[in-house]
Design a protein that fits this description.
Structural class: alpha/beta
InterPro entries: MAP1 (IPR026074), RibonucZ/Hydroxyglut_hydro (IPR036866)
Protein name: MAP1A protein
Radius of gyration: 18 Å
GO biological process, one term: dendrite development
Strand order of the largest sheet: 3-4-5-6
Strand content: 15-25%
GO molecular function: actin binding; microtubule binding
Organism: Turnix velox (Little buttonquail)
Oligomer: single chain
């Protein structure tokens, strides 16, 4: 590619070669290569959606060490595909234990799954130690022919 072609392709597709907002090597197509991102300072955000429906395919303890959120949304509801992943929920505990500060974190599951219930029960003491609260919702939204659990977050 000439510089002009490269510039044009970058402007026509600004997200090209970005994985979770981080520039990657275009020659490398392996998803695992995106996990070897150079270390940098942590990023603090109010709300973070755990990528890929909380699948273990591209979220590990490093994600939680670097993306420090007050609220994490867990949206997985497909046990056959490992969503949500117990490994990712455990990675939250491992990553948060490395923060060095005990900031309040709230985990917001969008579905009541067996994986999240078991994880909650089995790691409850560790959650308390790390100042992690799991938000349970007893509210239900009813729209036309469907109903689903609801959660309201105020900032």
């Amino acid at each position: 590619h000439t510089e002009e072609e490269l510039s044009r392709s970058t402007h026509s597709n600004p997200g090209k070669n970005l994985v979770n907002g981080i520039k990657t090597n275009p020659a490398s197509s392996s998803p695992k290569s995106s996990l070897s991102v150079p270390m940098g300072p942590p990023v603090y955000v109010d709300l973070a959606y755990i990528p890929n429906h909380c699948s273990g395919k591209n979220t590990d303890p490093e994600f939680f060490k670097r993306v420090r959120a007050s609220y994490y949304v867990v949206s997985g509801n497909d046990a056959a595909n490992g969503e949500p992943s117990r490994a990712v929920l455990d990675a939250l505990l491992e990553g948060k234990s490395q923060w060095g500060e005990n900031l309040q974190v709230t985990l917001i599951p969008t579905h009541d799954t067996e994986v999240t219930r078991e994880w909650y029960q089995q790691t409850h003491e560790k959650q308390q130690e790390l100042n992690i609260m799991v938000l349970a919702s007893s509210s239900t939204v009813v729209m036309q022919d469907e109903s689903f659990p609801a959660c309201k977050i105020e900032f």
